[in-house]
Amino acid sequence: MAVECKAIVEFMERLAPIHMAEKWDNVGLQLGDPLAKVSSILVAVDPVEEVVREAVEKRADMIITHHPFFFDTVKTLRQDTATGRIAALLIKNGISLYCAHTNLDNAPEGINQHLAELLDLRELMTLEPLGGCGYHKIVVFVPAGHEDRVAQAMSEAGTGRIGNYSHCSFKAKGVGTFMPGDNTDPFIGQRGELERVEEYRVETIVPSELTGRVVREMLAAHPYEEAAYDIYSLQNGRSDIGAGRVGLLPQAVSLGTFVQRVKKVLDLTQVRCLGSNDMMVRRIAVCGGSGASLIDMAAAMGADVFLTGDIKHHDALKSRGLGLALIDAGHYGTEKIAADIIKAHIDNQIKGTDMEIEVIKSQISTHPFIIV
Predict the structure, then answer these.
(1) Are 313 and 357 found together in one domain?
(2) Which residue among 205, 218, 320, 353 is least crowded, i.e. fewest CB within 10 A of its CB?
(3) Measured between alpha carbons, how far is residue 133 from residues 20, 49, 52, 114, 125 in Å?
(4) Are residues 187 and 210 in the same domain?
(5) What is the CATH number of the domain that holds 345?
(6) Which residues contact 154 (CB under 8 A, 6 or more apart)?
(7) pLDDT per residue over 98-123, tens digit each?
């Protein structure tokens, strides 16, 4: 069964909520009708003309890319320009376009996290945590005998995750009082009579971006016609959201050995490197795309080497002065895993449902350079 475009948007924002994007970025549904039916999705890194023509050829209803299509100010959409041709192709063929850029970089299960995990890094920390992302505490009162069902529904919707632990909650028994009104259909008690019921106070935490979904699932599982619940904003910081990651290899290796691992994992024939091949490295910092702005942070967190892309001459000299080795695997080289991440996420979202959606990984390499 095909679904509306807005359902795919919701899937994507579970992976990379829009509020996790940098303020200067432009992400989300950039072109198309949220109510359009989608049965086939093409996933790519860049929304270039070749990718759009591939989508037309494969009859995709939607394209999801990492890099935005509308990024800089667009004043015209003439078809003698690349932007105009691409927009015309998308509109004529009824193809929607969605982009997840720095929100996918910063997300807990986004590009930087996957890049670090692909390299087998442990004890991961975020290089530059993103401000403005936090938690809510949800407290709900449930009649005895139903507390586990409601807590489970909330956990499945995303509550109670603290570090590597899940299903974290607290329950306390008490007595709730209420009087059903004339127009009620009470689960317990009689209209017009004060009722005293043994209830549980169930409380847990949830990432703020999931609060709405958790409340919907909580109310669906709750037996009461009118459930009593509270939502509190917390000051707890989110250390799992932000730019870059730093972690430890299982054991120290030479820089030359680590470079070969990077090339193998990212399927690259060449990288640029700063540092001695025989120096030993274990604490590794990574940032997909253009991570030069994080050189100082990587050095301050004790990294031996920083893997990123788009390193300029003066960035490299700064890094050398800080005693930080560099591996420049290219912007595309460090971010091409975005297509795999997005495809796997959507496949997982539709698994076990009646949705019939084909998710296709683009076969177009948008690496703009050749080695000569």
Answers:
(1) no
(2) 353
(3) 7, 35, 34, 20, 16
(4) yes
(5) 3.40.1390.30
(6) 138, 140, 160, 169, 202, 204, 206, 214, 217, 218, 221
(7) 999 999 999 999 999 999 999 999 99
